[in-house]
Amino acid sequence: MINLGMASLRLYAGLVGCRSGSCARSLRTLSGMTVSQIDEEVAKLLELKVQLGGDEGRHQFTLKTAKGTRDYNPKQMAIREKVFNTIISCFKRHGAENIDTPVFELKETLTGKYGEDSKLIYDLKDQGGELLSLRYDLTVPFARYLAMNKVTNIKRYHIAKVYRRDNPAMTRGRYREFYQCDFDIAGQYDPMIPDAECLKIVHEILSELELGDFRIKVNDRRILDGMFAVCGVPDDKFRTICSTVDKLDKMSWEDVRSEMVKEKGLSEEAADQIGQYVSLQGGMDLAERLLQDAKMSQSKQACAGLTDMKQLFSYLQLFQVTDKVVFDLSLARGLDYYTGVIYEAILTQTGPVPVAAAQNGAGEKAEEGVSVGSVAGGGRYDGLVGMFDPKGRKVPCVGVSIGIERVFSIMEQKAEASAEKVRTTETQVMVASAQKNLLEERLRLTAELWNAGIKAEVMYKKNPKLLSQLQHCEDSGIPLVAILGEQELKDGVVKLRTVHSREEIDVSRAKLVEEIKRRTSDV
Amino acid sequence: MINLGMASLRLYAGLVGCRSGSCARSLRTLSGMTVSQIDEEVAKLLELKVQLGGDEGRHQFTLKTAKGTRDYNPKQMAIREKVFNTIISCFKRHGAENIDTPVFELKETLTGKYGEDSKLIYDLKDQGGELLSLRYDLTVPFARYLAMNKVTNIKRYHIAKVYRRDNPAMTRGRYREFYQCDFDIAGQYDPMIPDAECLKIVHEILSELELGDFRIKVNDRRILDGMFAVCGVPDDKFRTICSTVDKLDKMSWEDVRSEMVKEKGLSEEAADQIGQYVSLQGGMDLAERLLQDAKMSQSKQACAGLTDMKQLFSYLQLFQVTDKVVFDLSLARGLDYYTGVIYEAILTQTGPVPVAAAQNGAGEKAEEGVSVGSVAGGGRYDGLVGMFDPKGRKVPCVGVSIGIERVFSIMEQKAEASAEKVRTTETQVMVASAQKNLLEERLRLTAELWNAGIKAEVMYKKNPKLLSQLQHCEDSGIPLVAILGEQELKDGVVKLRTVHSREEIDVSRAKLVEEIKRRTSDV
Lengths: 523, 523
Fold this sequence. Notes:
The structure is a homodimer. Chain A is elongated. The first copy, chain A, has helices at about 5-20, 25-30, 35-50, 75-95, 105-110, 140-150, 195-210, 220-230, 240-245, 255-265, 270-280, 285-290, 300-320, 355-360, 385-390, 405-415, 440-450, 465-475, 485-490, 510-520; strands spanning about 95-100, 105, 130-135, 155-165, 175-185, 215-220, 280, 325-330, 340-345, 375-380, 395-405, 430-435, 455-460, 480-485, 495-500, 505-510. Residues about 1-30 and about 350-370 of chain A have low confidence and may be disordered. By secondary structure, chain A is of the alpha+beta class. In chain A, the strands form three sheets. Chain A has a nine-stranded mixed sheet. At the A-B interface, helix 1, helix 2, helix 3, helix 4 and strand 1 of A face helix 1, helix 2, helix 3, helix 4 and strand 1 of B.
């Protein structure tokens, strides 16, 4: 039985009134309602829904993971572990500390940080208490962390999953739940030194992962804003035009131009001027040229960005990474919080296209040399921490995020294609027996090995066949078998068998641990 | 302007009617409504709420993490990494593979698996599309994974965060977001062998973590159910009485008895009989005695459980872990899915109580020897995979979950109390200079070291003071400093300084990498 308060009567009178045309009156009625009264009504309606069977009737039970997410099987985990090790080693080589934050934040923490992408945030259901959202990236939680703990200096990495209600394209490594591997430097420093280190890190990681050739595009929000200003974009349209420019990696210039003019109301003239700039690419030379450009040089902002760009390239030369870095005026990046340098790394070779993607890819351009997607991105965000600090104190930050799902996809395809077997365990020895009734002896020996730090397995059968024990070793790449029999027990030895050569020797029980360690020291 | 359809008119007519008494009629009206029409109305009301300012006005912006969650700072991460390494090493030593699953599952996947605890599940907001919930443990996602991928044999571990809308007690390591480290063995095997390995693993991990003395309680769902049956508990009350028995670690027997009788409607006689059994503790001997018990022996189920318990203890003797394992008839565990052996590990020493807890602990019993909380638990769940398999095919499973937040708390308190500094980076060398204008030389050398795999840091200042560079090394435990000056550059050397001894020697640039590696080989 549902209990409706007087509030609902008033509310619905208002709603109905609104529909029948007398909106002014009804809005006044509405303003008499409080938010918590609305909440109450919503709760009652949802209760009603449950009584009607809720969403149950809509679909049958389906055995699947949520849309846009996936499990990792042991083989994929082995690959993931390898990729993470490469990335973490690099972060540690650069002296980074490690932090972690919760998977959800107060909803308000994420509000107003992501511009047009905010609609992709996953909210949690209001079950009473705080309103929560799943993190959308690791940057905003990092800024919240800095402000909350009054940290003004830190170099940290953070590897964790983030969540976006985007259109997934899983065969190409685009998921709704995906890992980001972030490295950020917070603190007041001399210009462009930390920024250059971030690019060096991207260069190191992408080189070490051996994913083929790559390119790191660099630009600066101040250059973009300066460009928009001198091209005649109204101030209040900077961010939205920036979002449109950001689509240049997926859309042709014609389509981008059309969106600017038709959807965003920009003048054709301004759009065309933007078009001339965003086609430019180069290095330090381009920054120098633009500093002399009649129009660009009129913008103080652009000049500051261009001067820093020159400085950045001088450090990149010292780091010997200029071979992969391009100053590209079309790079925009959608997120609202960037204030200075921005960058994005793309793989320039198209990898082996997975079958499913090739089949579904009707609308996809598969031209030669087309970028197969961004694998890293980042930039400077000097204002974000100040948005959280009660006194607005700023902590300048610059960072990079490695998006490794695409990397996983490539590595998985490589592993699929290669004949080499991926081991999913590190087991050194299997404790086996050829005879019956030796379960207890097998268990005792296995425990001895475990206690000595040896990675050992034993079959959970009273009387397993020797063949099936050996087969398990073949299947999972276990290199050694310790075989027990009545005779071996009497003699105080174990028959140690090398799986690949099938050689067997007797080893005294006392020396077994040492012998296994010696033979598997490379495992 | 809000657009309300005719549906709402009918709906609200129904609701109002309901309130005014003529419910039969209104429910008929309601049954004319579809769930999606209700959804539509809810969406409209929520839109209204946004127009009224949403939840904005309710509270001011707060700089905090969500209730019951916490950040990990670098020191905590260093401790966490150490704990994880111990646990992962153990899992790998036992030949486990690794898997991962998404943080959220379809809501229906979690439905009906957790008994009375289901109310603690976090749901995601219905933003269109599937209804999702955050995982509550790693066991149900594992069972879903097995059924979905038709895996009938696997030994795997999974370390990930799970989510429970419980009352947090963070100073005691109880959070709403917390890690579980799960190890499970799935497959049809001879009885109690994998079960014994799970207990061996708990024993190894808790011993290696050096958390003080511990006890592992063991029981069996079949023994509990048999006991309930012979004590006269009606069949349909087994689960709810089981939940009450599960509270014996937090409540006195008197309170548990009262809940059984007054809240759950059990007869006093039955409750008292249960009381006699749940006070029993022992080992293999107790299992043998109960097999002879006049009442217990009448239950086939209990006998099966007791026979297996004897078998389990015989394997535990081989594994030499019986010193810590107790057969305890009061152990119940709340989760619905257990079918056989269940266990739970507790630390028996009270650690140093954090100040905040001691101050707030008015209602807490702090008696000597009282358990400081469960740190591991698990059991056998032979029916869970079958609940997901379209044809109901069963895959027997047994597993253990290490709840390491409590462990972290203890380790953090230990680290706090100890004089030893926790290093949060692994940096081997700081590239420094005593003179001005050597930024470029410092950056060049740093890049050389990075490229040679050396963990190196450099200050992001054009002209940092030598003292502040050395201070940074002291603060963060960097053992070496490579100092560049005009003279060193001319001579092709670097002054290599050992931070703790302040010794300095000149090392030729060509040999620097080797020398750093030699001196930090133990880092």
